[in-house]
Amino acid sequence: MEDAGLGGHSSFVVADAVTGEVLESFSALRAHPPASVTKAVTALYALEMLGPQFRFETRLLGTGPIENGVLKGDLILAGGGRPCSG
Questions:
Q1: The overall pTM is greater than 0.70
Q2: Could you tell me the CA-to-CA distances from 37 to 43, 45, 60 in Å, in that order?
Q3: How far apart are CA 26 and CA 42, in angstroms?
């Protein structure tokens, strides 16, 4: 990361999915915030399961009329359904 001029810390572990044998690692015991690790795992899983062209749909809704460009009510962001049934 230093060569790229980026800040922060990184670590990784590559293991055989069948045997669990560690094939390669770098700073494997370095602690990272859980959200950072979770986002990476979730993104990789979604990319494999849904494909690179998949997009979630988010709708923008209002509970009242728009008067003179002002919404007289609540603004709602409604995330799109379930990408996988199961």
A1: no
A2: 10, 13, 30
A3: 21
Q: How many CA atoms lie within 13 A of 10 on its CB side?
A: 8
Assess contact for 56 and 80: CB atoms under 8 A. Answer: yes
Question: What is the helix (H) or strand (E) element at residue 59, kind and residue range?
Answer: strand 58-62
| Model confidence pLDDT, tens digit, residues 49-85 | 989 998 888 899 999 999 999 999 999 998 876 655 4
Question: Contact 71/64 with Cβ under 8 angstroms?
Answer: yes
Instruction: Report how far residue 66's alpha carbon sits from residue 51's, in angstroms, rounded to the nearest whole number.
Output: 38
Task: Indicate the SS3 state at residue 83.
Answer: coil
Residues 6 or more apart from 74 whose CB is under 8 A from it? 62, 63, 64
How many other CB atoms are there within 10 angstroms of residue 66's CB atom?
A: 10
User: Which phi and psi angles does 41 have, rounded to 5°?
Assistant: -65, -45
